[in-house]
Write a structure and sequence with these properties.
There is one protein chain. The protein is α/β, with parallel strands linked by helices. The chain has 2 domains: 19-66 and 101-215, Glucose-6-phosphate isomerase like protein, domain 1 (Rossmann fold, 3-Layer(aba) Sandwich); 71-99. The protein is built from 10 helices and 5 strands. It has helices spanning 6-18, 26-41, 53-65, 77-86, 91-97, 111-122, 126-134, 151-162, 176-181, 193-215, and strands spanning 46-50, 104-106, 140-144, 166-171, 184-187. α9 links the parallel β4 and β5. α1 packs antiparallel against α10.
């Protein structure tokens, strides 16, 4: 398991203090952090997908990873110099506006591709097609399903496994079929869909905070 830096571990402690119901999930959150960190350390990325409210969560997570969350994340000085070299007039402005990013993509966002694939082939395989096209060995697929049984995510999970990616599932109830195939299953301790979703948010917020603390220092 990847070692957690002190600042990242503090974020996990805060989560447990605020949401004691998540204490049984702490070990899996640490594991999820380690899998994502290992991917980032190797130049990888995270692909995220879900349906309905979990679709919105997928997009939310990308927003926290791809720009500053609680930190400003200035670009490295060598990249700022490269921008000045590339565009002496605007390079300084660009460098001042950009923020450090942790590569993440919501597979729910590509409406033209998804609707074309649904119309021409089969809508249940839209996520699987994107995992096949975008995924690389060592990347992570984060599949969000409150039941753990969403068939479009099951298809995407199978493609991720075949491509040598790691599978993290964010789910609830008994974890469903997805939890049985996952490298890491974050199972919110609830049976009701809306309560599961209410617990998903602090879990993924904390993961994003832990990663931000690891890679960006003010």
């Amino acid at each position: 398991m990847q070692k957690i830096c002190q600042q990242a571990e503090r974020q996990l402690d805060i989560l447990m203090e605020r949401y004691p119901a998540l204490l049984p999930v702490r070990g899996e959150i640490e594991k999820a952090y380690g899998l994502i960190k290992e991917s980032y350390d190797q130049g990888g990325k995270i692909l995220i997908a879900g349906n309905g409210g979990s679709c919105a969560d997928s997009q939310h997570i990308v927003g926290e990873l791809m720009k500053g969350f609680c930190k400003k994340r200035p670009v490295p000085e060598d990249f700022a110099r490269a921008l000045l070299s590339a565009d002496p007039e605007r390079g300084g402005l660009i460098a001042g506006k950009l923020q450090g990013a942790l590569p993440a993509m919501a597979l729910t966002d590509h409406q033209a591709l998804n609707t074309a694939f649904a119309n021409d082939v089969d809508g249940d395989f839209c996520f699987a097609q994107q995992v096949y096209g975008y995924g690389d060995p060592g990347d992570v697929l984060l599949a969000i399903s409150t039941s753990g049984n969403s068939k479009n995510l099951m298809y995407a999970a199978a493609v991720a496994k075949a491509k040598g990616m790691k599978l993290i599932v964010l789910t609830g109830k008994d974890g469903g079929l997805l939890a049985k195939t996952a490298d890491c299953a974050l199972i919110a301790p609830s049976q009701e869909t809306y309560m599961i979703q209410e617990l998903h948010l602090p879990i993924y917020h904390t993961l994003c905070l832990m990663l931000e603390e690891t890679y960006f220092h003010e």
